[in-house]
Amino acid sequence: HTKMAQTLAPYLTAVRKTLEAALCLRNFASQKVERHNKPEVEARMDKELLCRPLTVSRNEGERVLIEPSINSVRISIKIKQMDEMEEVLVDRFSRFLMQRADDFIVLRRKAIEGYDISLLITNFNTEEMWKHKVVDFIIQFMTDVDAEISDMKLAINARSRVVATEF
User: Fold this and answer.
1) Residue 158: its pLDDT value, please?
2) Could you tell me which of 90, 86, 94 has the C-alpha nearest to residue 153?
3) By the 8 A CB rule, do 79 and 146 touch?
4) Which of 2, 9, 65, 82 stands the most exposed, by the fewest C-beta atoms within 10 Å?
5) 8 Å CB contact between 120 and 42
6) Rounded-to-integer distance, Cα 10 and Cα 136, Å
7) How confident is the model over 6-46, as pLDDT tens digits?
8) Residues 105, 60: Cα–Cα separation, whole Å
């Protein structure tokens, strides 16, 4: 895993720096609906409150889309999928996580089109939690998901070898 971690490091550093810059959120009530405070990145009511979306890409199949706005940031993660087995594993794993979105607070129930997992961080999250800890969580989450998919693939390959030798 150390070789993979070394090649992953510059990518994760770029994601970390971009998130640190994007997570400058503040409480901002809706300009259209009185006494409402919806995440602007989701509501998209006022274009001037949205910042330019940024994509940090490691390669074609592995990237992070960061969509900042005045009071929220949506982070969409595309997990690497080298073969059909990894595609199935990523699909099942992300579905498993999204069904438990309430337990993760910042995880969205549905990913953005073209991505596997989406997170939504609002100004309320950054008021309740430390910004650097939120960034640490996202980076750790990305690292853990990557490792978990690799471990599951190894376990499946090991089991299929055992089955193949039995029959």
Assistant:
1) 92
2) 86
3) yes
4) 2
5) yes
6) 15
7) 678 899 999 999 999 999 888 887 777 776 778 888 888 88
8) 29
